[in-house]
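New to this. Help decode both lines:
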Amino acid sequence: MKYTIKKSVFKTAAIVFISFILNVNLSYGRVWHNGAGSSYSDSGEERAISSNTIETYLIEAGGFYLNANSSVQELLALVELQDTRGVDYTELKNVLTDAAGNIEKAIETYENLINTAEITPYNEPVLNKLKDFDYKEFMVENDLNSVIFIRVEDFLKKGDIRGLFKKVRGDLKEISNMLKTINEKVSINETPQISALWSLNEKFSNLSLFGSYTARVFSNLKK
């Protein structure tokens, strides 16, 4: 019971913190890649259903991803405090299980998303807007990380939304493998190597920004 309460409080705080650093509003589902569904045609009943399904998958996957990220931040906090509070390997295992479970759900959701996207035609007017979008001005005005934003621009400007989705799926699978490697240590009551934790945290940070920047651009197209 004590662990459950502590985990719930920590996750709530972590999600609020993630929302703050991304400068977005969790309440409106606009944190991670949201809006990309609009790049698919919604003309005709069947296409409208597919377009809405893609956006729904994006929202669901975003939720799984953010929950996994909050678990990883909890993991990092537990490791950070080990010199003053000791290490509770049962707690580490539980946090890792939560993170890995949510990442697998995010991967599964992206598989469904990509399968749907593969058979749904693009929305050409939206792709034209993406092609003509002033990415450089947008990046400067919003003080965005240029390295990551240029990667977003590369997909969006070419209208390669499916490629963007596949890139995210690949990153999620890489995170899943990182978590498995870390869990190998924790499962035998050994603290993970700090370099592995650095890499995991950095991978999440980069992917979070990648998704946030994608959502920013699509949100701006509506203005």
Q: What stands out?
A: The first helix runs from residue 2 to 22. The CA atoms of residues 175 and 203 lie 7 Å apart. The chain is about 80% helix and 0% strand.
